[in-house]
């Protein structure tokens, strides 16, 4: 979903989400660093591992929130964050999650809500590597810097342009 700080803050407000961890996924190298990932040398995406209580929120609901928290039509990154590591992807941890993610992507495309094709990848996760400690809960630990970054990056304005009242699946985000 682009910057993992923003994805963390967007999902931490969803009832039933127990934990979010910023990290890296989708590439070939083991234990990548932020510098390696953002330089494009690993094939990894910035990603967020989401732990949730399925009795409180379904995987399908998390997918709905995801789609409405990103620009799934942008294959060059997200908002002001450009490059392969900032592209959008759903990393499923099981065949059932993969099938559900592919179905939700198809349904979104068929609904023709967006003007451009959906380019977000859906993949089975190979591995997830936690990002460095200073990235975890960045939006809480560095609230002023984070709020400025998020505003200056144009993330919220673009999400509102794309999704209107459906932005963030109706949950808002930590800055709302």
Would you spell out the secondary-structure blueprint of this structure?
Layout: H1 4-12, E1 17-25, H2 34-38, E2 45-52, H3 59-67, E3 77-78, E4 81-82, E5 89-92, H4 95-111, E6 121-124, E7 128-130, H5 138-141, H6 143-153, H7 155-163
Parallel strand pairs: 5-6
Antiparallel strand pairs: 1-2, 1-7, 3-4
Helix pairs in contact: 3-4
Q: Helix segment count?
A: 7
Count of strand segments: 7
Q: Return residue spans where pLDDT drops below 50 for at least 5 consecutive residues.
A: none
User: Which geometry do the CA atoms define?
Assistant: globular
N-to-C order of helices and strands: HEHEHEEEHEEHHH
Distance between the termini: 19 Å
Strand content: 15-25%
Largest sheet: 3 strands, antiparallel
Helix content: 25-40%
Rg on CA atoms, Å = 15 Å
Biggest sheet strand line-up: 2-1-7
Average of pLDDT: 94
Structural class: alpha+beta
